[in-house]
Amino acid sequence: MARLHRALLGAWLGAASAALLQVGVARADTGAALHADVAAYVAKGDHLVGTQGAESTALWLVQRLSQLGYTVEHQTFELRQYRRTKLALMAQGEPIAAALQWWPPDAPNGLTVKGTPGSGAGRFAILPVKVGDQSYLGGAVEARIQAAIAQGASAVLLATETSLGADGPYLFNARAQAEPWPVPVLAISAGEGARLMSAPVGLELRLAGHHETIRAANIVARLDRPGTDTAVVISTPYTGWGPCGGERGPGIAMFLAIAAWAREHVPHDIVMVATAGHEVGHSGMARFLESDLAPAPEATALWLHLGASIATYARAGAVDANSATRYALFSGTIAPIAQPHLASAFVPVDTSQAVFGEIADVARAGYPHHLGFAGYGPHHHLPSDTADSTAPHLLSDAWQRLLITVREVLGVP
Fold first, then answer.
1. pLDDT tens for residues 322-375?
2. Strand locations in 325-382, DSSP E?
3. Interstrand relation of 71-91 and 269-275 (parallel, antiparallel or unpaired)
4. Cβ–Cβ < 8 Å for 58, 215
5. What integer pLDDT is reported at residue 172 of this predicted model?
6. C-alpha span between 337 and 9 (Å, rounded)
7. In 145-230, which ranges are E strands?
8. What's residue 20's pLDDT?
9. Which DSSP category does 250 fall into?
10. Across the strands, what pairs with 113?
11. What is the CATH number of domain 2-80+214-410?
12. Residue ranges of the chain with pLDDT lower than 70?
């Protein structure tokens, strides 16, 4: 029986690759084509919503989806953002890699803070923080920050220690309605934090920036089929902290690949949505769900969400996939199909038992047939999250498992 299952799986994988080649997605190598799109995405620069990199990415997505024959529009909405114009953290004049934790204090005319590491008035409080699977600051860490500020800290440095071997300043997602910190809160690497605590030196922080309301945009593409009253929705975020090569890149590449595949094979209306503002409280997904651009739950045959870190390395320096830290989340209606194809490579999660990421927003909105992906890799939310966070063989395997599952859920021969 096991041999038969492996033989059937091999046949399915071969058929999936053939289908990709037929619609021009894979070219000579499915994984290489997907990785090329990850690299193109990373090359756009910083993907924080409101930046030039995010806007360039949006235009690129519009172009790619339009070329596939989709009708594309911008769904604009207002979003709170912090416009940073200067950030420099120095130890005795030497720069330290640091990232600004949202929401910073207003500093339109510039702010300079000088002091030494330690606790108390006028000091730079250094707080070691172990980062696990959380994307948002937990209550315990927030309480430590507030306690340091109450003791008179003029700035707080979170020395973030990630769990998968990469070191760097980890940024937590921002809650859209949270109040600004009264003093600057920054992330630095765990190694830098240990060095500063072992040999305290003079620190200087220069910050300039201000809060403003910006216009962000979801990219929504449609392909309507005559004679059908059901839709398939495929969503992915396109903004985030920094280059987002492993966090967002695989989802973006598979979003474009499945747009091409679905055009040829899916008999339902197809709605593709790339959301903005994931890192600010899932703002874009919230806007899409509350709009009439989202089909009704009862008219949706499947909602597929391509979230974070679908295919990255397991640890810094590893060659295998992040199977223990990536999750396939699905409704009970999809579980019998999803489990056989995904459970050996992803952590399976029944959304009636637990749900997180943007697929949680979809589930709570009442969509009964949903499949989503979420997770984290070694460079998640770090400046080092480049296209090297993933690789063709990782992308190809994840893509083929995903495609087999979607084909069976939709009954596509």
1. 999 999 999 999 999 999 999 999 999 999 999 999 999 999 999 999 999 999
2. 326-330, 347-350, 370-375
3. unpaired
4. no
5. 97
6. 13
7. 155-162, 185-189, 203-223
8. 40
9. H
10. 205
11. 3.40.630.10
12. 1-28
Q: Please name the residues in contact with 67: beta carbons below 8 A apart, sequence gap of 6 or more.
A: none
How far is it, in rounded angstroms, from Cα 125 to Cα 149? Answer: 8
Burial class for 61, CB neighbours closer than 10 Å (0-12, 13-18, 19+): buried
Q: Residue 61 has what pLDDT?
A: 98
Q: Could you give the dihedral angle defined by the CA atoms of residues 99, 247, 27 and 58, in that order, rounded to the nearest 10 degrees?
A: -60
Using an 8 Å Cβ cutoff, are 359 and 413 in contact?
no
The pLDDT, as a whole number, for residue 229 is 94
Kindly list the domain boundaries of the chain, sorted by start residue. Answer: 2-80+214-410, 83-211
pLDDT of residue 29: 72
Taking alpha carbons only, the member of 382, 363, 258, 369 closest to residue 308 is 382
Class of domain 83-211: alpha beta
- Whole-angstrom Cα distance, residue 298 to residue 279? 29
CB-based contact 44:56 (threshold 8 Å)? yes
**Which residue type, as a one-letter code, is found at position 298?**
E
For residue 46, the number of C-alpha atoms closer than 13 Å in the C-beta half-sphere is: 10
Residue 2, pLDDT score:
31
Q: Peptide bond preceding 103: is omega within 30 degrees of 0, i.e. cis?
A: yes
- Among the listed residues 257, 248, 221, the one whose alpha carbon sits nearest the alpha carbon of residue 307: 248
